[in-house]
Amino acid sequence: MGDFAKCGGKLRPLKIVYAGTPEFAKIILSSILQTAHQVVLVMTQPDRPSGRGLKIHPSPVKEVALDKNIPLLQPTSLKLDGKYPQEASEAKSILEQLDFDVMVVAAYGLILPKWLLALAESKSQLGCINVHASLLPRWRGAAPIHRAIWSGDVETGTCIMKMAEGLDTGPIIAQDRLNIQTFDTTQTLHDRLASQGARLLNETLNDVAHGKEFQLINQSEIGVTYAQKILKEEALIDWSQDAQIINRQIRALNPGPVAFTHSLDVLYKFWLSEDISDVVTQHRSATPGEILEINELGIEIACGKGVLRILELQKAGSKRATSKQFIQTNSFHVGQKFN
């Protein structure tokens, strides 16, 4: 562990290496920067093409680092024997020469090799501290928020864990639970989990700075699930499924890649919905994907079982709109089908 000698009765703030890439990691980083601790280096993935026109954009984490004048490292890989050994070797050299106390990782997106885990272990009892948006061992992997909503979980949470070589297999340092609300989307749940994770992490960092001895809890081998990366083809709606499953799909894929369907060869994205099977009876003669009703509350569609009400949608080439706004300028009719 680093030297936490007292200075004027106060413990010296930690020097932190931070590794993260998307918006979730940006929120965590921004929270750290509001504390007394110092981020001495930020690691994030290389700039990628995104948005319309696929222009090259920096990651959200890089934007914060540039704004705060924090040194940046953007290796394509950290594997010394991988496809980019020179980049990995340069990163290793920089990190080995850097004076830091602890490494924090949140949704970085690159595998941390053994040499980096060992280097972090030499700095702190906790090694690489990872912020993960699920109650491990449930939903290890890339898309824990999406998968929790899509699977109908009633709760999730945040784990602060010590990183190990396996995929999200390390022991738990701290965790907190969070209820998944009926109207949660991946976006709304993401924001609440990021806020929760930032709080938990800062508490952990303060405990590290005060020299606390942690009692790590090994993850159970029971209940392990993997949150595979969301594929674009998963966003196509299968109207033969139950309304509650399609509703969860739509909410899980908001804000991306967004659930979609077709009608009369036109693509429609569905952003928000609700399962109204308890209050609306599906017509026995209706086929899955058929519009049953159009009113101020939304567009009601028959499913394999139950009825789904679309609240927000988007026609290809148009802007996202509420159903009420949409039907004022678009001609849907009862009996029209989606497929």
From TrEMBL:
<keyword id="KW-0808">Transferase</keyword>
<comment type="function">
    <text>Attaches a formyl group to the free amino group of methionyl-tRNA(fMet). The formyl group appears to play a dual role in the initiator identity of N-formylmethionyl-tRNA by promoting its recognition by IF2 and preventing the misappropriation of this tRNA by the elongation apparatus.</text>
</comment>
<dbReference type="GO" id="GO:0005829">
    <property type="term" value="C:cytosol"/>
</dbReference>
<dbReference type="GO" id="GO:0004479">
    <property type="term" value="F:methionyl-tRNA formyltransferase activity"/>
</dbReference>
<feature type="domain" description="Formyl transferase N-terminal">
    <location>
        <begin position="15"/>
        <end position="204"/>
    </location>
</feature>
<dbReference type="InterPro" id="IPR005793">
    <property type="entry name" value="Formyl_trans_C"/>
</dbReference>
<dbReference type="InterPro" id="IPR044135">
    <property type="entry name" value="Met-tRNA-FMT_C"/>
</dbReference>
<dbReference type="InterPro" id="IPR036477">
    <property type="entry name" value="Formyl_transf_N_sf"/>
</dbReference>
<dbReference type="InterPro" id="IPR041711">
    <property type="entry name" value="Met-tRNA-FMT_N"/>
</dbReference>
<dbReference type="Pfam" id="PF02911">
    <property type="entry name" value="Formyl_trans_C"/>
</dbReference>
<feature type="domain" description="Formyl transferase C-terminal">
    <location>
        <begin position="229"/>
        <end position="329"/>
    </location>
</feature>
<dbReference type="InterPro" id="IPR037022">
    <property type="entry name" value="Formyl_trans_C_sf"/>
</dbReference>
<dbReference type="InterPro" id="IPR005794">
    <property type="entry name" value="Fmt"/>
</dbReference>
<dbReference type="InterPro" id="IPR011034">
    <property type="entry name" value="Formyl_transferase-like_C_sf"/>
</dbReference>
<keyword id="KW-0648">Protein biosynthesis</keyword>
<feature type="binding site">
    <location>
        <begin position="134"/>
        <end position="137"/>
    </location>
    <ligand>
        <name>(6S)-5,6,7,8-tetrahydrofolate</name>
    </ligand>
</feature>
<dbReference type="InterPro" id="IPR002376">
    <property type="entry name" value="Formyl_transf_N"/>
</dbReference>
<protein>
    <recommendedName>
        <fullName>Methionyl-tRNA formyltransferase</fullName>
        <ecNumber>2.1.2.9</ecNumber>
    </recommendedName>
</protein>
<dbReference type="Pfam" id="PF00551">
    <property type="entry name" value="Formyl_trans_N"/>
</dbReference>
<comment type="similarity">
    <text>Belongs to the Fmt family.</text>
</comment>
<dbReference type="InterPro" id="IPR001555">
    <property type="entry name" value="GART_AS"/>
</dbReference>
